[in-house]
Amino acid sequence: MVQKERYRTESITVFGENQKVVIFITHPLDYDSLKAEWETIRNEVANSQSKIDDEFERWNHYLFFLVDEKSMRDINLKYKIEHDTISSRKILVSQKEYAEDGFEAVVKKYIQYAFEPHYFEELDEFEKNSEVVALLKDR
Questions:
Q1: In which band, very low, low, confident or very high, does the pLDDT at 33 lie, cut at 50, 70 and 90?
Q2: How far apart are CA 42 and CA 37, in angstroms?
Q3: C-alpha span between 104 and 126 (Å, rounded)
Q4: pLDDT, tens digit, for every residue of 55-113?
Q5: What is the structure's pLDDT at 71?
Q6: Closest by alpha carbon to 26, among 47, 15, 40?
Q7: How far apart are CA 46 and CA 35, in angstroms?
């Protein structure tokens, strides 16, 4: 089957309430393969997507392209793929990031938007600066 050769797919529940998100992850693609195959892969996903009756599931398809560093550096190609409006949400992920972080971390980063606690910083209490207040007084 062609699908098994180009990518793997998983249907997962990420938001609860039995709402499924369908995720497609390509096998690693080099720059030339990405340029040549991304539209074909997108069209295969769109065909699969069009057969789903559930509205939430149909509009929550994510297609991750696992790509080499050269593909990540081609801003024009990356923009063209990620902003393409046909079918699924398309995201380029470096093979290195995927290898280091794994499937669950990529899903959390790009779909669930999970933030680690160390990203948040407590700020000191805000105090007015009298010099700034004086400057802004007559404005």
A1: very high
A2: 9
A3: 38
A4: 888 888 999 999 999 999 999 999 999 999 998 999 999 998 888 888 888 888 888 75
A5: 92
A6: 40
A7: 18
| Domain edges within the chain | 2-136
For residue 63, the Cα-to-chain-centroid distance in whole angstroms is: 8
Q: Which residue has the higher pLDDT, 9 or 51?
A: 51
pTM of the model: 0.71
Q: What is the mean pLDDT of residues 35-41?
A: 95
Which amino acid makes up residue 90? K
Distance CA 139, CA 132 (A): 12
DSSP string, the chain: -HHHHHEEEEEEESSSTT-EEEEEEEPPB-HHHHHHHHHHHHHHHHHHHHT---HHHHT-EEEEEEE-HHHHH-HHHHHHHHT--SSSEEEEEEHHHHHHHHHHHHHIIIII----GGG--PPPPP---HHHHHHHTT-
